[in-house]
Write a structure and sequence with these properties.
about 280 residues; alpha+beta; 2 domains; 18-stranded mixed beta sheet; DAP_epimerase_DapF; Diaminopimelate epimerase; cytoplasm; diaminopimelate epimerase activity; amino-acid biosynthesis
Length: about 280
């Protein structure tokens, strides 16, 4: 038995999209197998999407399974890919996206898909991080970080040059630090000389560096503003996979903009480990 999928990516952050109506008894096992870049299709996650066309604008319910087989509350580039998938199927330029972190609005703007992100917080209880007050420029496991939740937890560190950092060495101790009861993503950023920032992110659930991370780009922008490192709007952020822009709308909520590409379609087999 097989199920069809569509492969999308947002600035290199890539996902298999499977319609939620497809019968997949063990979604986590499928994600672990097919996200593997050697033995599977290869992706940073699997999005299960349910389309509700009776609403105006249409709504899409998004559930993200990561390569470790667990769900994630939110993914900025995943939400943008889900929006593109839904807009292609409804012939619209706007959709609402229901995520585990809240409901978001997404719009097409030229070549970009723009999604309004969830409310962000530095509150230690909501991040969550074991601290009595917001963590700003504090050392955790040898890395000076500021901690924010932009739909998921990020520990953000500003460095002179992201390319000079051995991320696979410095990130895991922070990602698994005891002060993070649910773990954290680890994002590093360096000024690009033009008011923006270069980005690299080690993602929880992927357990490695990804070509792009939308919630990480937003984390860079909001922490940079909080620390007085920029007053730009939009803030240009450059992960390895492309260029993203983080703006702040009239409600003070961040928006994430960037291109989305439909790569190809295919089918995955529901093997016996998935069906067990």
């Amino acid at each position: 038995m097989t199920v069809p999928f569509q492969k999308y990516h947002g600035t290199g952050n890539d996902f298999l999209i499977i319609h939620a109506n497809e019968h997949v008894p063990n979604r986590g096992a499928l994600a672990k197998r097919e996200c593997d870049r050697t033995d599977g299709v290869g992706a940073d996650g699997v999005l299960f999407l349910a389309l509700e066309e009776d609403f105006n604008p249409p709504r899409v319910v998004m559930t993200l399974f990561q390569p470790d087989g667990k769900t994630a509350e939110m993914c900025g580039n995943g939400a943008r890919c889900a929006a593109e998938w839904a807009m292609e199927r409804t012939g619209t330029d706007s959709v609402m996206i229901d995520t585990q972190a809240g409901t978001l609005r997404a719009d097409r703007d030229g070549k970009n898909v723009v999604v309004e992100m969830t409310d962000l917080t530095f509150d230690p209880e909501e991040v969550p991080v074991d601290a009595d007050e917001p963590v700003l420029e504090e050392e955790i496991e040898g890395l000076e970080v500021s901690v924010v939740n932009t739909g998921v937890t990020h520990a953000v560190s500003f460095v002179d040059d992201v390319d000079e950092v051995d991320l696979e060495a410095v990130a895991p101790p922070v990602r698994h630090a005891d002060v993070f009861p649910e773990g954290t993503n680890v994002t590093i950023a360096s000024p690009d000389g033009e008011g923006g920032f270069d980005q690299r992110t080690y993602e929880r659930g992927v357990e490695g560096e990804t070509d792009s991370c939308g919630t990480g780009a937003v984390a860079i922008a909001v922490v940079a503003r909080r620390l007085g490192l920029t007053d730009a709007d939009p803030v240009d952020v450059h992960p390895p996979g492309g260029d993203l822009q983080v703006s702040f709308n009239e409600r003070g909520r961040p928006t994430l903009a960037g291109p989305v590409e439909h790569e190809f379609d295919g089918e995955v087999t529901l093997e016996s480990p998935v069906e067990s």
